[in-house]
């Protein structure tokens, strides 16, 4: 799911992404990440995000698209994409400290909470090292990119597994109708909100 999140983050780049249709030519050498096929949309998006300092691979020449993305990593990448300034690690969550995540992740989680972009696990915890679900990623990306989310609550249902009474419904609809989110691998009309 990490590549889908990256495509979503490209959407978060708003005006520039729209102007370039999330593409660029030769930002990095072809095949920069050896595990992302050259010429695919994901190849272009990962190069743009790498060049902008939003996201890096799992090592020098691999992106590891099949690895799970943690909630802390997602917060960091979304915050970077939105240009959110990292604040001190004065987290409102009991499980987000300099001992549980990196200093930058800790500060970004605190900053995203302040901006209203984050999705807490409970009223006092964030669960930073748990894999982020597709529903949680949709909520974070949508909160960071859209101001009028209520309008999406009224839109017709797109996926059979995302119902209008689900807490994440307007976020998934916002991203789907903006061509940022798509169906999951397991079904043509399913979003798989609980998958990571």
Radius of gyration: 16 Å
Quote the beta fraction: under 5%
Distinct helical segment count: 8
Low-confidence sequence ranges: 13-28
Number of beta strands: 0
What do the pLDDT scores average to? 80
Summed up, what is this model?
The protein has 196 residues and is mostly helical.
Describe this structure in words.
The chain is an all-alpha fold and 196 residues long. The protein has helices at 2-12, 14-20, 41-51, 71-82, 103-115, 134-145, 150-153, 169-177. α1 (2-12) crosses α3, α4 (71-82) crosses α5 (103-115) and α6 (134-145) packs across α8. The longest helix is centred in the middle third of the chain and has 13 residues, at 103-115. The N and C termini lie close together (6 Å). The model is unreliable at 13-28 (pLDDT under 50).
């Amino acid at each position: 799911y990490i590549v889908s999140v990256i495509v979503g983050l490209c959407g978060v780049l708003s005006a520039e992404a729209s102007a370039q249709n999330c593409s660029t030519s030769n930002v990095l050498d072809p095949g920069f990440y050896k595990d992302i096929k050259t010429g695919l949309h994901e190849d272009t998006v990962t190069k743009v995000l790498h060049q902008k300092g939003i996201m890096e691979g799992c090592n020098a020449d691999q992106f590891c698209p099949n690895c799970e993305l943690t909630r802390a990593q997602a917060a960091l990448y979304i915050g970077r994409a939105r240009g959110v300034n990292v604040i001190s690690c004065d987290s409102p969550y009991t499980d987000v400290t300099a001992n549980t995540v990196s200093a930058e992740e800790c500060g970004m989680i605190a900053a995203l909470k302040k901006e209203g972009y984050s999705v807490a696990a409970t009223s006092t915890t964030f669960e930073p090292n748990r894999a982020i679900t597709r529903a949680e990623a949709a909520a974070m990306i949508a909160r960071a990119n859209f101001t009028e989310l209520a309008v999406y609550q009224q839109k017709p249902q797109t996926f059979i597994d995302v119902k209008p009474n689900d807490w994440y419904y307007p976020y998934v609809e916002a991203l789907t109708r903006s061509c940022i989110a798509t169906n999951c691998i397991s079904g043509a009309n399913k979003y798989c909100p609980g998958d990571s």
